[in-house]
Amino acid sequence: MSKERAHRRSAREAERALAIRRNVERQARRARRRAVILRLTPRPVRVARQGGLIARRQRAQNAVVALAFLIVQALAWLIWGSALLSFGVLIFSLLLVPVLVTLAFDRRT
């Protein structure tokens, strides 16, 4: 009876050892695969926005300028409807926006 129990115990220990070895090998494969994937994939670069008062004001000003630009383009397209005139307004607006931004928002202070 004790020989049979010893035999079963040794069989269980062998199965546990085999399971532990398989688990260790599986974890090693996963670690190697993870290392390769980390080397091959580019890491995301997080660009943090400035959170100060000046940065928030500048973002708001940029939003106003962009919205005004889009409204002018939409009105030009709706009023004239001509592709050539709309293109002319686009070119004129692109040239005029930096001038208006410089005059309207003094960003030196």
Concise account of the structure shown:
Helices cover 82% and strands 0% of the residues. The chain is mostly helical and 109 residues long. The chain crosses the membrane at residues 63-80, 86-105.
Defining key terms:
about 110 residues; mainly alpha
General description of the model:
The chain has 109 residues and is an all-alpha fold. 82% of the residues lie in helices and 0% in strands. The chain has three helices and no strands. It has helices at 2-40, 53-80, 83-104. The longest helix has 39 residues, at 2-40. The chain is rod-shaped and about 100 Å long. The model has no long low-confidence stretch (mean pLDDT 88).
Spell out the blueprint of helices and strands.
Elements: H1 2-40, H2 53-80, H3 83-104
Helix pairs in contact: 2-3
Secondary structure tally, helices: 3
Distance between the termini: 94 Å
Q: Biggest sheet, in brief?
A: none
What's the alpha carbon Rg, rounded to whole Å? 34 Å
Annotation, overall tally of beta strands:
0
Helix/strand structural class: mainly alpha
Mean pLDDT: 88
Unreliable residue stretches: none
- Write down the secondary-structure element order: HHH
Keywords: Membrane, Transmembrane, Transmembrane helix
Transmembrane segments: 63-80, 86-105
